[in-house]
Design goal:
Layout lengths: L41 H19 L3 H14 L3 H13 L3 H14 L4 H13 L3 H14 L3 H51 L1
Helix pairs in contact: 1-2, 2-3, 3-4, 3-5, 4-5, 5-6, 6-7
Length: 199
């Protein structure tokens, strides 16, 4: 009998310590998304502008919870693509990528050309280890509004994408070789059985 040769292993992605598990990636309860169809009053615009100023100040001071609270007030009074993208950026800093994806996706519904929203969503996908989505969104965001900081993230994501493509190509080749070996083994087995039956 021929000795069974060891099967060539498939490559798996190494665990990335920077990838956040989906169970830890969201806020509870999910953030208030406001009503973009609602027509704001003059008073809403005044209160919204005040809340937006507070949100920006708090974000600058590193008080992300406070910034989110004020951005949520703005979302409820005068929702806009930029406000959603800014609140999404806060969630990103808090390492809550699912919340950031919700906000940046809403921003893109309102303004499909928001470079900031694409970049926030792309970075959020990167935090989740979703390299294809991350590369797509970051690339789109950079095409609209290029910045060096995002370029650094883009390099990391591109490296992960290249590694994924190489891994996928390797694994496909391994699977094809395995299938070929199985076919060859079956062919030999059938030939033996036919030889026995003919004897």
């Amino acid at each position: 009998e021929e000795e069974e040769e060891e099967e060539e292993p498939l490559e798996v992605e190494e665990a990335d310590p920077n990838v956040i598990p989906e169970a830890d990636a969201d806020v509870s309860p999910p953030q208030d998304m406001g009503d973009a169809a609602r027509e704001p009053s003059e008073a809403d615009y005044e209160k919204g502008a005040e809340a937006k100023g507070m949100a920006m100040e708090m974000m600058g001071n590193g008080d992300l919870d406070g910034a989110i609270k004020h951005y949520t007030t703005v979302v409820s009074l005068t929702p806009s693509a930029l406000v959603y993208a800014n609140r999404g950026a806060c969630f990103l800093k808090m390492k809550k990528p699912l919340a950031a994806i919700r906000d940046s996706s809403k921003a893109l519904e309102l303004n499909p050309d928001s470079g900031k929203a694409f970049k926030v969503r792309g970075k959020a996908y990167a935090m989740l280890g979703k390299w294809v989505e991350a590369a797509r969104d970051i690339g789109q965001g950079q095409n609209i509004d290029y910045d060096e900081d995002t370029r650094e993230v883009q390099k990391v994501v591109d490296g992960k994408m290249d590694a994924k493509h190489k891994r996928d190509a390797h694994n496909k080749a391994v699977e094809e070789r395995r299938a070929k070996k199985r076919q060859e083994k079956l062919r030999k087995q059938r030939a033996k059985e036919e030889k026995r039956a003919a004897a």
